[in-house]
Design goal:
By secondary structure, this protein is of the alpha+beta class. Helix content is 23%, strand content 31%. It is globular and about 40 Å long.
């Protein structure tokens, strides 16, 4: 790995399988969110008793982070459509989501992903019978990581760490990467708000 690649990698969390983090200080109840392979949107709707919405923070063309580019198998300088949203339960940010869609993936029926606005991505992905989901990667994010800064940007009180997961999804055989960072107010027992 070149020194430039090492410096990019140092600014990112150490993404890995659940086995890597199993013995870590994962907050009680967080494992359930991190490992759930169902629709996060559906689960958040249920946990919020229907008081769920998506707040679009940013959408436009941008450069993936180093590890995102590697996972998507794109060249470092290649841009992707970057969509950043907050998923709110009871008007409180519970999840920060960052989705990257390479231009080559925005073809055919997947073109609709460019115009989601405040619609939940999960509703589109999990309603498509041809959708495939890759393995889940997990990470502990710390304040030095750009993804932590983006996720915690709207929080009044900045946490010392955040936990997140990311997954490659495939629509019509084309990849898109979804990062989901769980914010401090996420209910750690499904359906019950954090005290």
């Amino acid at each position: 790995m070149s020194s430039e690649n090492r410096s990019y990698a140092n600014l990112e969390p150490n993404w890995g399988s659940w086995q890597v983090y199993r013995g870590s200080d994962v907050p009680k109840g967080m494992e359930d969110w991190l490992l759930d392979r169902g629709s996060l949107t559906s689960r958040l709707v249920k946990a919020s008793e229907g008081a769920f919405r998506v707040r679009l923070l940013r959408q436009g063309w941008g450069r993936p982070l180093y590890s995102e580019s590697q996972l998507l198998c794109t060249r470092r300088a290649e841009t992707a459509l970057v969509r950043e949203v907050e998923l709110l339960g009871r008007d409180t940010p519970w999840v920060f989501a960052r989705t990257l869609i390479p231009a080559s993936s925005l073809r055919g029926s997947a073109r609709r992903l460019a115009n989601l606005g405040s619609k939940p991505l999960g509703a589109v992905l999990f309603s498509d019978p041809g959708m495939r989901r890759g393995p889940i990667q997990i990470a502990r994010l710390q304040p030095r990581h750009p993804l932590f800064a983006a996720a915690a940007n709207s929080l009044q009180q900045k946490p010392t760490e955040l936990w997140g997961r990311r997954t490659l999804f495939y629509l019509a055989g084309k990849p898109l990467l979804v990062n989901e960072i769980f914010l401090p107010e996420i209910p750690l027992v499904s359906g019950e708000p954090k005290p």
